[in-house]
């Protein structure tokens, strides 16, 4: 033995040396070591500080149940807090730091918390900081928040890469121990695909049949409906360009849960000292990693399973201080192993306390005759029995069942398609166990939940103060609420609570399990969907043209659209107002491709439109366009837009940009579920057609330069709300719609999307003589408000046709989606907030969307709130204007209202006017 590394044994690669650092000091380990095993091999026992009392803590387990050895990995943006040292494979250059200490691990100033422990018992947050209440916000809360938490967030974007994949199999085996391997081989022999997952690195990969896929370092952390399993694979030896983790969605015909069992500790005073470990963990470090945690080990147990540690230590010549067995007389197995190893057995002995400050230096035990004995040792290997690892089985709301024969909970109702085997099923564990839950009343702290510093007294106090339900105790004490989710604590805690209540464990109950089984990073759940990959940029077909014109872009739903086209010296407002003036006085060009476009065809297409729109459609003439309003089933407005009739059985519907997908989904539901007998076909063609708006007094003159003759677009031949198929630019197929969102003479010209960019350039050249300029969404929004058109802020899912002044579109001659519900008195009440226009009384004060509307002179109180500003703009011709939803709005035209905006210090009087601010007669768009 060299230091704490055994001379032989283990499954590590002793030929490879790996250099890593912990708290700035460099160490070496071997390939296959975890950070925990490598630190133990180097004699490092102090790993961190506890959450509340900042007590010294060391390595407690060898797996994912580790409550103590939480470290920070990496530096800078790569820093990852609360990583379990027991699950981290070391690699060359690994950097790790202890956490939850200041200024250093050995000398932590907040260890003074232990002196104030009488004031920090369960529920102290609720009790201590109640008075004086005014100190809470300024003093108590900042202090608590500064002291709370484990680890530090990097505070920088995560530079790591993550992957996602989906796997399919006939049988999924969860757990790669002996039981799991046997089950995988048996399933493979029956044919079909098998996946075997194990959360540990495979130091000695099992020999498996070809039809078994083995996924090491993979934790199945959740079971969902539809035989779907979520798993997380830790990818080894991270580099800058190597994915860190892979989220695996597994669809399995059936699953076999072979997750084994988790050892629970004995509870005694100062049982959190570095050197107090689970007996099974000591065995794992010896057999898997060739490391001994100490040279003089005391084994404390209450079952025969842990007795196997005695011959294992003897075989590696590791000293033992003795065996403290809480069972009267101990057992034949313990005595047999102990005699062979020449180790003393203290039968009927209770371990009272660990001694030592920074690490275990000894143990105090009480013999069966009451004598207290002090034993020197450097490790206390503790075993209070095993708990079947049934977390996955209980994620479907099944309650675990108490099995008194093994003094542990076993699985209740299993998830559909699942079976459970081996130790996870309670088989072959806790032989000859005599439960021993804690060592009795002790002035020192007896920890039950090591990670959250929950003691026996905390549980007893919670029960004493009326928090007797298991779930209440959990929340009052924070028991089992840390990153380990109480894997080594919960059963002991339940037993202590049952004892305090004088009840049996089954009557006391148990906490429930929910996913994830172990912590999962948000990066893994997101996968590659971050940054621009989170929501890929959807570019309009004229994006290159807009870039060439100097456009500033904005996100509009899923699209990137030109927001404005600044010229030298212009800010966004100056550019937008210039663009509005260009449209009003000459001609402008805007890409409106992002409006949803749905092609509707079939003999019953017109009947279908009658069903989904509130107004009539069978009487729409060929070559004409009509405005349509669509309701949800509850009678509220879903969307609006125009629909053109291109043929007897052929319509093209437009929707708002934001609601394109929702409307398409709604139409498909109507066609397939509500009216399946109608012969109609639907398809979204938003991406197939690029569409450009040409608006302004000179728009007809510009269009005449690109439309192939002899097509006539004069006012007489092609009036407002006309549509037609035609060709442009010497044969390019196109569709022309005479519709206007700006309120000016305007057209929308649609071409196959691949031609749209070239068309924009051609229109710019054709319109140069007429002063044509492109305009963006800012100008579009200003003109929309000038004309009183409802858009997203007004179509917010809470408005009705009456609210928007569109009640005349509700046909009384036919049925349509939402008709009955739209007629409810509450939705037709004139007192409802209704669309109006607003103008500041002084003509200059800026109105802002979101401002509250109050009666003049009324206090800013909720009962005086009569509506709000939905959209506001600064018109280059009209000055500040707005649209608003105001209670009983149409009847109050001409009145004055208070526009109150406390967040932005806005408070002014405004005149209530009709919502159409500009050209209310519509003479310009009919020109």
What does it look like?
There is one protein chain. The radius of gyration is 37 Å and the shape is elongated. Strands 8, 9, 10, 11, 12, 13 and 26 form a 7-stranded mixed β-sheet that branches. It has 21 helices and 48 strands. Among the domains are: 160-259 and 386-429, FAD/NAD(P)-binding domain; 553-594 and 689-774, Gyrase A, domain 2 (2-Layer Sandwich); 597-684, Aminomethyltransferase beta-barrel domains (Alpha-Beta Plaits); 830-913, Elongation Factor Tu (Ef-tu), domain 3 (Beta Barrel), CATH 2.40.30. Helices cover 20% and strands 28% of the residues. The protein is an alpha+beta fold and 927 residues long.
According to CATH, the homologous superfamily of the domain at 160-259 and 386-429 is FAD/NAD(P)-binding domain
User: What gross morphology would you assign?
Assistant: elongated
Described by strand count, sense and barrel closure, the largest sheet is: 7 strands, mixed
Secondary-structure-derived class? alpha+beta
- Give the oligomeric state: single chain
Integer average pLDDT:
93
The helix count comes to 21
What is the level-2 CATH architecture name of the domain at 160-259 and 386-429? Answer: 3-Layer(bba) Sandwich
Strand content: 25-35%
State Rg.
Answer: 37 Å
> Into which percent range does the helicity of residues fall?
10-25%
Low-confidence stretches: none
CATH class of the domain at 160-259 and 386-429: Alpha Beta
CATH fold field value of the domain at 160-259 and 386-429: FAD/NAD(P)-binding domain
Gap between N and C termini, in Å? 98 Å
* Number of beta-strand segments: 48
């Amino acid at each position: 033995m060299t230091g704490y590394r055994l001379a032989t044994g283990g499954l590590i690669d002793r030929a490879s040396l790996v250099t890593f650092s912990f708290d700035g000091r460099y160490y070496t380990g071997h390939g296959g070591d975890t950070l925990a095993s490598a630190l133990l091999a180097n004699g490092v026992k102090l790993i961190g500080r506890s959450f509340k009392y900042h007590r010294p803590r060391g390595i407690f387990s060898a797996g994912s149940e580790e409550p103590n050895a939480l470290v920070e990995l990496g530096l800078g943006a790569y820093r990852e807090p609360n990583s379990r040292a027991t699950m981290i494979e070391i690699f060359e250059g690994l950097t790790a730091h202890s956490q939850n200490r200041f200024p250093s691990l050995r000398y932590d100033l907040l260890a003074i918390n232990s002196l104030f422990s009488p004031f920090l018992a369960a529920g102290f947050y609720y009790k201590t900081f109640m008075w004086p209440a005014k100190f809470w916000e300024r003093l108590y809360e900042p202090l608590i928040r500064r002291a709370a938490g484990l680890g530090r967030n990097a505070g920088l974007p995560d530079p790591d890469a993550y992957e996602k994949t989906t796997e399919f199999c006939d049988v999924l085996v969860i757990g790669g121990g002996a039981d799991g391997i046997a089950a995988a081989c048996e399933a493979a022999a029956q044919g079909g695909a098998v996946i075997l997952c194990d959360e540990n690195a495979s130091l000695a990969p099992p020999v498996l049949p070809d039809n078994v896929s083995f996924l090491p370092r993979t934790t199945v952390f959740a079971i969902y409906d539809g035989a779907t399993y979520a798993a997380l694979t830790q990818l080894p030896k991270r580099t800058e360009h190597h994915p860190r983790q892979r989220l695996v969605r597994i669809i399995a015909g059936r699953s076999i849960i072979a997750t084994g069992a988790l050892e629970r500790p004995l509870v005694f005073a100062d049982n959190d000292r570095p050197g107090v470990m689970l007996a099974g963990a000591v065995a794992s470090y010896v057999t898997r990693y060739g490391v001994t945690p100490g040279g003089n080990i005391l084994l404390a147990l209450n079952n025969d399973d842990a007795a196997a540690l005695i011959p294992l230590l003897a075989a590696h010549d590791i000293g033992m201080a003795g065996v403290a067995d809480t069972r009267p007389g101990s057992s034949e197995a313990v005595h047999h192993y102990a005699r062979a190893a020449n180790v003393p057995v203290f039968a009927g002995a209770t371990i009272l306390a660990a001694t030592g400050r920074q690490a275990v230096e000894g143990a105090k035990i009480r013999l069966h005759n009451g004598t207290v004995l002090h034993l020197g040792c450097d490790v206390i290997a503790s075993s209070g029995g095993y708990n079947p690892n049934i977390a996955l089985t209980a994620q479907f709301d099944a309650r675990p069942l108490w099995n008194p024969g093994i003094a542990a909970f076993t699985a209740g109702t299993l998830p559909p398609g699942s079976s459970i085997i081996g130790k996870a099923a309670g088989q072959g564990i806790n032989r000859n166990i005599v439960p021993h839950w804690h060592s009795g009343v002790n002035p020192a702290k007896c920890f039950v939940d090591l990670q959250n510093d929950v003691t026996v007294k905390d549980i007893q106090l919670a029960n004493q103060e009326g928090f007797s339900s298991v779930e209440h105790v959990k929340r009052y004490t924070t028991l089992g609420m840390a990153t380990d989710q109480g894997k080594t604590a919960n059963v002991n805690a339940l037993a202590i609570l049952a004892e305090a209540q004088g009840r049996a464990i089954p009557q006391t109950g148990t906490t429930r399990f929910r996913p994830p089984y172990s912590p999962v990073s948000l990066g893994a759940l997101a996968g590659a969907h971050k940054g621009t990959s989170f929501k890929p940029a959807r570019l309009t077909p004229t994006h290159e043209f807009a870039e060439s014109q100097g456009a500033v872009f904005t996100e509009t739903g899923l699209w990137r659209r030109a927001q404005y086209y600044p010229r030298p010296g212009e800010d966004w407002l100056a550019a937008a107002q210039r663009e509005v003036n260009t449209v009003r006085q000459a001609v402008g060009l805007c890409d409106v491709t992002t409006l949803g476009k749905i092609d509707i065809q079939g003999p019953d297409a017109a009947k279908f439109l009658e069903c989904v729109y509130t107004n009539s459609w069978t009487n729409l003439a060929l070559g004409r366009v009509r405005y349509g309003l669509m309701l949800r089933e509850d009678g509220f407005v879903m969307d609006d837009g125009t629909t053109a009739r291109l043929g007897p059985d052929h319509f093209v519907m437009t929707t708002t940009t934001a609601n394109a997908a929702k409307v398409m989904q709604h139409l498909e539901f109507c066609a397939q579920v509500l009216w399946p007998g109608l012969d109609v076909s639907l398809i979204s063609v938003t991406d197939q057609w690029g569409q450009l708006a040409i608006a302004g007094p000179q728009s007809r003159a510009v269009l005449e330069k690109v439309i192939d003759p002899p097509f006539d677009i004069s006012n007489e031949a092609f009036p407002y709300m006309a549509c037609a198929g035609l060709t442009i630019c010497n044969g390019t197929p196109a569709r022309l719609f005479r519709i206007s969102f700006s309120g000016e003479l305007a057209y929308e010209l649609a071409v196959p999307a691949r031609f749209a960019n070239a068309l924009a350039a051609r229109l710019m050249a054709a319109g140069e003589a007429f002063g044509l300029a492109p305009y963006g969404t800012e100008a579009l929004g200003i003109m929309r408000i000038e004309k009183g058109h409802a858009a997203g802020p007004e179509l917010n899912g809470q408005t009705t046709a009456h609210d928007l002044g569109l009640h005349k579109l509700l046909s009384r001659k036919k049925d349509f989606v939402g008709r009955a519900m739209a007629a409810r008195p509450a939705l037709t009440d004139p007192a409802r907030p209704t669309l109006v226009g607003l103008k500041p009384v002084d003509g200059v004060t800026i109105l802002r969307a979101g401002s509250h509307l109050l009666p003049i002179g009324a206090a800013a109180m909720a009962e005086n709130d009569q509506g709000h500003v939905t959209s506001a703009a600064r018109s280059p011709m009209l000055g500040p204007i707005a649209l608003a939803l105001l209670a009983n709005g149409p009847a109050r035209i001409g009145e004055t209202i208070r526009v109150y905006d406390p967040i932005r210090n806005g408070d002014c009087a405004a005149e209530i006017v009709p919502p159409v601010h500009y050209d209310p007669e519509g003479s310009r768009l009919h020109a």
